[in-house]
């Protein structure tokens, strides 16, 4: 699916070379592809319609800059709109209130509420140094309370006992009281879910909300739910003032279209993504990375980057200065280099600039394959978190697997890229920047 979209767009792009504007006539085919890609990513139909309409409105009549063609410009618009819809920047938990800050977990049964409660407890305990207490108000599923006890212990947090014969409201009040007396910073309240939305469940959680006055009311939703996520999200939004969303099971093979749907329907920011069953499988949600996942990472980024044609001398200078000053050459710099290569017109055009002798040698190389390689590399780096890019040493087996899954490649390819990066890093250290600007200038001319 991923490559299908960009391949199709590229083909359409070729057909419209020389057209300087995005017009009603040339945009239709491209919008159809975008629409298909979003539907395949499991974005709900009404959300897709709205989205495509917005993209069209932004695109129409837009002048196409420099050596761009309308197709490339449109990909840029789609990407920016995806990021804007899902929320730019990072949206953190609000912990500013007077402790104990209460976090209420809402969502269907099986969405991952209990697991996420423990993941959050760990996150808040380890990263934010908070004293966290969890409590389960799920008196309908006897195993639920025990499950929370077990995972809370794994999280290294405290757990407040409850029993199936109590009323959820009484449990919540008792837990809050205990939290106050024990100087707990954050109380996370796990609630009962049903298999489908029903009135009794909504009434109960509304009552809990009224009694607890939580600072955060997080709606937990399974990313694999696809189209259904919209209806669930609507029902919870109508029942509760949601302050954030946690998308779970993002490690599954869904394209994560639910993110777009749920965000649009609830208007609440997506705060976290669940990426494994394990206690540490929680990440702060990154809209930019997720936009790539929805439309097919490597390819879309590759196309978008072409939007800013020409070598970015400022970026090159910054890199040179960085290397010169002896600062670490990291994966962001590596990515920038790869992207610079592409901006310079791709490998084949670059080859034309080489002396004849070298061209003959290069002729034996499969250019298409080489170009594809570059895009895959970009995809891999774009699947890394900002921290991993800065500190590649952190990338061990589990992270490698996640990155490979995000970029749609085998783990071996991630290894290969990291090896290559290390070689480049070694070279950079030797060069200390001196030769780099010259090299870039020569290539760009
Ligand atoms: P609850 O009924 O909403 O409390 O859901 P649970 O927390 O019991 O989760 C239901 C199932 O989903 C369990 O098997 C969890 O291990 C699993 N699960 C939860 N979050 C994730 C996630 O981010 N990734 C994966 N792969 N599994 C998850």
From TrEMBL:
Location in or out of the cell: Cytoplasm
Q: Name one Pfam family in it.
A: SRP_SPB
| Gene giving rise to this polypeptide | ffh
A GO BP annotation:
SRP-dependent cotranslational protein targeting to membrane
Which stretches make up the SRP54-type proteins GTP-binding domain? 269-282
- Coiled-coil residues are none
According to the UniProt entry, the note on domains is:
Composed of three domains: the N-terminal N domain, which is responsible for interactions with the ribosome, the central G domain, which binds GTP, and the C-terminal M domain, which binds the RNA and the signal sequence of the RNC.
Using the UniProt record, give the first listed, main subcellular location.
cytoplasm
Keyword field contains Disulfide bond: no
Q: Which organism is it from?
A: Ramlibacter rhizophilus
The record, for CDD domains, names: SRP_G
Q: Which GO terms describe its cellular component?
A: signal recognition particle
Residue positions binding GTP: 107-114, 190-194, 248-251
Name of protein: Signal recognition particle protein
**Keyword Iron attached:** no
């Amino acid at each position: 699916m991923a490559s299908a979209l960009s391949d199709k767009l590229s083909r359409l792009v070729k057909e419209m070379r020389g057209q300087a504007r995005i017009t009603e006539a040339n945009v239709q085919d491209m919008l159809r592809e975008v629409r298909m890609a979003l539907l395949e990513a499991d974005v709900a139909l009404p959300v897709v319609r709205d989205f495509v309409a917005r993209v069209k409105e932004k695109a129409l009549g837009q002048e196409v800059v420099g050596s761009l063609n309308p197709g490339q410009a449109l990909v840029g618009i789609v990407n920016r709109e995806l990021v804007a819809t899902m929320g730019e920047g990072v949206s953190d938990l609000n912990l500013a209130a007077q402790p104990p800050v209460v976090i209420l977990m809402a969502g269907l049964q099986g969405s991952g509420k209990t697991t996420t409660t423990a993941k959050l407890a760990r996150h808040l305990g380890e990263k934010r140094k908070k004293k966290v207490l969890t409590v389960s108000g799920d008196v309908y599923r006897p195993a639920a309370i025990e499950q929370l006890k077990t995972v809370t212990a794994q999280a290294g947090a405290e757990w407040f006992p409850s029993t199936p014969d109590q009323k959820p409201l009484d449990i919540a009040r008792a837990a809050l009281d205990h939290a106050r007396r024990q100087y707990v910073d954050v109380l996370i309240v796990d609630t009962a879910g049903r298999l489908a939305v029903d009135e009794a469940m909504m009434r109960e959680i509304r009552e809990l909300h009224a009694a607890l006055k939580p600072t955060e009311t997080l709606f937990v939703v399974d990313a694999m739910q696809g189209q259904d996520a919209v209806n669930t999200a609507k029902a919870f939004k109508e029942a509760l003032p949601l302050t954030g969303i946690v998308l779970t099971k993002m490690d599954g093979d869904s394209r994560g279209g639910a993110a777009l749907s749920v965000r649009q329907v609830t208007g609440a920011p997506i705060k976290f993504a669940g990426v494994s069953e394990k206690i540490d499988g929680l990440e702060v949600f990154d809209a930019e990375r997720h936009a790539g996942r929805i439309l097919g990472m490597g390819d879309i980024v590759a196309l978008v980057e072409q939007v800013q044609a020409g070598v970015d001398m400022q970026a090159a200078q910054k890199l040179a200065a960085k290397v010169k000053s002896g600062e670490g050459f990291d994966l962001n710099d590596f990515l920038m280099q790869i992207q610079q290569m592409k901006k310079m017109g791709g490998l084949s055009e670059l080859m034309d600039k080489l002396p004849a002798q070298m061209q003959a040698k290069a002729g034996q190389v499969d250019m298409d394959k080489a170009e594809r390689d570059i895009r895959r590399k970009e995809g891999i780096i774009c699947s890394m978190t900002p921290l991993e890019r800065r500190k590649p040493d952190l990338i061990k087996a589990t992270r490698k697997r996640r990155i490979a899954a995000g970029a749609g490649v085998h783990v071996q390819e991630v290894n290969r890229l990291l090896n290559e990066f290390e070689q480049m890093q070694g070279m950079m250290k030797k060069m200390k920047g001196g030769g780099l600007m010259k090299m870039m200038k020569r290539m760009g001319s």
